[in-house]
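4.2 Preliminary Data

To establish feasibility before requesting continued support, the project team ran the inverse folding procedure on a target of 353 residues. The structure was first converted into the token representation described in Section 3, and no sequence information of any kind was made available to the design step. The complete token record follows.
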């Protein structure tokens, strides 16, 4: 007598929660997504704890930039992350399970260009790189991720509550280094455009280096951001009237304001662009020539800059850093990206909630 038919079923895929942007349906939603495969040679699986959101996430979510991984229609967002080592692949040294880590964002082009070969993927020459949560690679607004060990920055436990600021702080460290390298004189004053998280971190960095700092932004004089800046020694203003500066850091997203700020730069002045959106603006070329002015763009950061950011954040008063952060559950991430909450300086989403 024949026995019963045997039906072999494939095990159901293990899934995790993730904030996915679908480029086909044009929807951003928290949904199930397959967990990444276990770590291979040189890989580390990390369990995400928190992930901040910023203007770049908004730009991707509004389809101004970015793309999903090849062959997929959806992209997991998020690049300002912190997590703990969950599992180590063969050959990994220097990290251990339970260790706090922050992932870098950009991955090398291939074949490697001269800058990526030197460890400066932030200055990639080909533009063929990929970026976690932005361009061609899934990000970190999810429960688990797998990265190469070389793409992770070990974080001291004392910085656990503020490690989510390491990535944005690394952007400032690179911009600051660039500005000082380009200025041929002895700069003493800094103008920061914008009082968002990047602007505040830029102002603090300049203050710590002994510079006179003015921050120009549109928030009221008695706003949380303005009061925070003034309390730590920066001058706050809502216009460029009466301002003079040797170095200008644009952190506001406005090309128009950046060009206007060139009118208050002293001779030999340097303007660093970090987030200006595309715009048709008048370039004051004659003034630039006469004043020996320099404009430079800066994006992303190297491993060295991430290390500098860790050291910088460790030097700050914990009350300063705590005043920046507002923590929310992962379920509210889509809302936060599209509609920033009034009064919140830096929205950070807890992955486990």
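Position-by-position output of the design step:
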């Amino acid at each position: 007598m024949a026995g019963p038919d045997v039906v072999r079923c494939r095990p159901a895929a293990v899934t995790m929660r993730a904030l996915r942007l679908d480029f086909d349906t044009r929807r951003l939603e928290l949904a199930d997504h397959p967990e990444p495969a276990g770590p291979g040679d040189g890989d580390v699986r990390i369990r995400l704890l928190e992930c901040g959101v910023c203007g770049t996430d908004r730009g991707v979510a509004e389809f101004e930039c970015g793309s999903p991984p090849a062959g997929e229609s959806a992209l997991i967002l998020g690049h300002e992350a912190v997590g703990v080592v969950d599992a180590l692949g063969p050959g990994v040294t220097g990290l251990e399970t339970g260790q706090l880590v922050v992932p870098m964002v950009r991955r090398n082009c291939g074949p490697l260009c001269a800058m990526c070969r030197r460890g400066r993927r932030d200055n990639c020459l080909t533009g063929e790189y990929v970026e976690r949560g932005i361009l061609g690679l899934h990000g970190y607004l999810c429960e688990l991720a797998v990265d190469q060990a070389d793409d992770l920055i070990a974080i001291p436990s004392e910085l656990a509550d503020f490690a989510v600021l390491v990535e944005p702080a690394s952007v400032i460290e690179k911009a600051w280094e660039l500005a000082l390298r380009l200025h041929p004189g002895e700069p003493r004053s800094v103008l920061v455009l914008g009082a968002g998280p990047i602007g505040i971190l830029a102002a603090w960095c300049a203050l710590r280096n002994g510079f006179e700092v003015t921050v120009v932004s549109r928030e009221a004089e008695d706003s949380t951001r303005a009061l925070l800046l003034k309390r730590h020694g920066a001058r706050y203003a809502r216009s460029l009237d009466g301002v003079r500066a040797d170095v200008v850091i644009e952190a506001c997203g406005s090309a128009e304001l950046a060009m206007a700020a060139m009118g208050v730069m002293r001779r030999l002045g340097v303007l660093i662009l970090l987030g200006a959106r595309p715009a048709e603006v008048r370039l004051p070329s004659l003034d630039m020539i006469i004043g020996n002015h320099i404009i430079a763009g800066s994006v992303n950061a190297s491993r060295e800059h991430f290390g500098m950011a860790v050291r910088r954040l460790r030097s700050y008063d914990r009350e300063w850093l705590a005043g920046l952060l507002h923590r929310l559950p992962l379920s509210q991430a889509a809302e936060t990206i599209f509609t920033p909450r009034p009064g919140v300086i830096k929205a950070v989403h807890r992955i486990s909630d």
